[in-house]
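Table S2 (text version). Query chain:
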Amino acid sequence: MSASTLHGDVQPYSMRKRLLQMLGAVFFALGLYAAILGPLEFVTFYFYSPGGRWHYEGFGFGSLWFGVLAIQIIGFYLVAAVLIPLGYGHLRLRPWVGKLSLTVLWGWLVLGLPCALTVFTIFVLSKEPPEGTYPVIAGACLLMYPVLPVLMIRIYRSPTTRAAFQQTGGEGGWIERTPQPILVLGGLMVFFILALHVLFFLNGVFPVFGGFVSGMKGIFLTDLAIFLLAVLTYGVFSRRMWAWWGAIVYFALLALSYTLSFLMGGGRNFIDQMRLSGWELKILEDPPHGIWFVLLFVPPMIATLVLIAFSRRHFHPFELRALSLSDVYMLLLIVALWALFLT
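Corresponding structure-token output:
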């Protein structure tokens, strides 16, 4: 091999390493910023409480704006939990970070559209932007989905990027040994667990095959849905065939329940189940048709079902045998944590 050829191979490789480390510094800084901003955001609850400068009658647990603030705080913590490890891995060029980055990006392709619409909706509800800024925000959301994740997936799957992460060597860890579809599926299920917690802040509104329940009944059903999904998530990461079948049934029923509830009950019924104040009811006095809620919530569930079907070959064949000791310990831990939460 000539010196010129060798130089031509090494130069883009070295440049890619520097770019990845620069990207890691950005990720790490943004993750720290989100980690700091999350606790600070709790101050806004004080401003909207009685005696606060922005208080309005009816603000509290179950109101719309209380839920919006809670979603924002959860979002900050989620961003910090994702970006800080990714930033560290990029800075140190760890072998696992390439696969973890692809996991996040594929998950973003599944969840990105409703998340981008949610970000846009929260911006519209929480701000009073000058005229002409809505197209800018819409363009930013379009860049977030799907342009940016598709572009980043191509970069992370390139041979140069893979070589940059693998040059540190070392034994492969759990992330590297786990198939990519399993990581994506498990990550999506963890996200759905967090997303179901949002229902607690909206008076526990839960869809039940054509209608909605709220209050204690809705909270109990949400608890049950979270518990079942936590068990299935453990089974998916362990690549158990019973978890594959359970995930198929779970997401099929959840998608069907959301679809029937919004099409038959409508957006009005969904909003009426929440404890909204007069000011919030005025904002939502003309809610969109139920089909729009279906388009917002159901596509990620259907995409997850497709991913479950695609990942079947990565699950261990079903065996009629007793659960392993680690399975028993994990299930007991999940039951104990769930019981503690209910009390």
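Notes on Table S2: The two ends are 70 Å apart (CA to CA). The first strand starts at residue 206 and ends at 207.
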